[in-house]
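Chain A, query sequence.
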Amino acid sequence: MAEWERAESLKPTFFTRLRHALLKLWQRWWHGLLGLFWTPRPDFYHLLGEHAARVHEAVAALQEWMVDRDVAAEAQVAISERAADQLMEAIDDQLDKALSAPMDREDIHDLSSELDEVADYAKATLREMQILEVSSDQFTTEMVALLVNGTDLLRSSIYHLARDPRTARQQARAVRKIENQVEMIYRSGLHTLFQNPDIIQVLKHREVYRHLSNAADKLERVAYLVTRIATKRM
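Chain A, predicted structure.
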């Protein structure tokens, strides 16, 4: 038999290719069916609760650092902020893999993303105060204390989402009121600040005030998302 005839005889026929294609489709369908019944669904409520806990740790460490510039507190801010970043990434990864979620996927992503920025602002506030050589004052102390209370309340609110959405919504609404208090202190601080003739000091302190105010804005955004999710579950 000629070489070209032997090569032709070894080529897969149309029916052989069809059989292989059908076999692949069957394998994909079967694996997908197994995944539907056997793949465990991530506990997004727990992941979000842990994320909120790390954010609270970052803000609480910032408050501690503001008192006496403790090195351990400074390190804790960085550790908690990094842990919050890792949890945000883990939540996004689980969203990609999960076949289903207990709430809207976009809500989960937005909640985690906005929550993470609160920790980012805690770290940024500490760095700005170091770089600009700004000391704590009445207004920064009051704002960070409110943020500590707000993140703690928000952590509890997120943990309640799974089994007690009514309580979760009530706590989230309380967090939104905290944002209003921070905003009032921020404006009062600016009013006092601009009485100072030293424009350099004014600009330095305003930068720190804005970081804390922005953190409160993000906190209010997370509280709004929790309120919306809780309302859907009631």
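Helices lie at 3-10, 14-38, 44-68, 71-97, 105-132, 138-160, 165-193, 199-233. Residues 1-11, 33-38 have pLDDT under 50 and may be disordered.
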